[in-house]
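Retry 2 of 3 after timeout on previous attempt. Resubmitting structure tokens to design endpoint.
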């Protein structure tokens, strides 16, 4: 672990900034380039960067399968919940205008799109991180530490 101090220090410094940028991409996906999928991939990449440097076992210990499954299920539930809410109120799937909220049409659309983007981001982050960690194997050492 002491041999690769620079790689480990730079990774520990950069990962929080990468994760904040991912949240920015998710939150601003409706008004600029990006969105839930892109932000979710960036968020998953930050965990995979940790797996490369510190080893997949360490990432699995800190970000367990139950937590990854929870994020994936929560993201899917948010997406489906918003879509089915529109169907329950007589609209088409993800037709936000059908949801009776005490807001004007534009505010409802914007709020629901943001909610859907957040759900997609959580789901993609959980799924991609789980798939990649499953493909890595036991990964007791990082690629740098081999």
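Retry 2 succeeded. Sequence:
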């Amino acid at each position: 672990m002491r041999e690769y101090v620079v790689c480990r220090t730079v990774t520990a410094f950069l990962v929080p900034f990468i994760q904040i940028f991912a949240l920015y991409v998710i939150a601003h996906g409706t008004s600029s380039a990006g969105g839930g999928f892109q932000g979710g991939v960036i968020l998953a990449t930050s965990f995979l960067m940790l797996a490369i440097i510190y080893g997949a076992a360490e990432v699995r210990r800190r970000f367990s399968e139950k937590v990854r499954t929870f994020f994936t299920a929560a993201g899917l539930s948010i997406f489906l919940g918003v879509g089915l809410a529109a169907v329950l109120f007589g609209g088409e799937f993800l037709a936000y205008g059908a949801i009776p909220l005490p807001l004007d049409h534009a505010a409802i659309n914007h709020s629901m799109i943001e909610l859907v983007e957040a759900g997609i981001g959580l789901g993609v982050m959980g799924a991609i991180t789980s798939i990649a960690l499953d493909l890595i194997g036991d990964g007791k050492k990082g690629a740098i530490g081999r």
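Attempt log closed. The radius of gyration is 18 Å.
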